[in-house]
Amino acid sequence: MHITVINSNIINLLWILAFSLLVNAKRKVRRASKEPNGPISN
């Protein structure tokens, strides 16, 4: 039973990390898009 609780906590942390990474990536893309020679992703 304890394993399932730990796994759920880890999954929640991974979701938070993934969401924060997506937000940071979007901010970087916005900054790069303003630059003429910025990198183009997707």
Task: Spell out the key features of this protein.
42 residues, transmembrane
Sheet with the most strands, sense and barrel status: none
Give a count of the beta strands, DSSP E runs of length 2 or more.
0
SS summary, helix count: 1
Helix/strand class: mainly alpha
Mean pLDDT: 82
Radius of gyration: 16 Å
CA(first)-CA(last) distance: 42 Å
What is the helix fraction of residues, given as a range? over 70%
| Beta fraction | under 5%
The ordered H/E elements are H
List low-pLDDT spans: none
Q: Tell me, what's the shape? A: rod-shaped
Question: What would you note in describing this structure?
Answer:
- The chain is mostly helical.
- Helix content is 79%, strand content 0%.
- The chain is built from 1 helix and no strands.
- The model has no long low-confidence stretch (mean pLDDT 82).
- Keywords: Membrane, Transmembrane, Transmembrane helix.
- The chain crosses the membrane at residues 6-25.
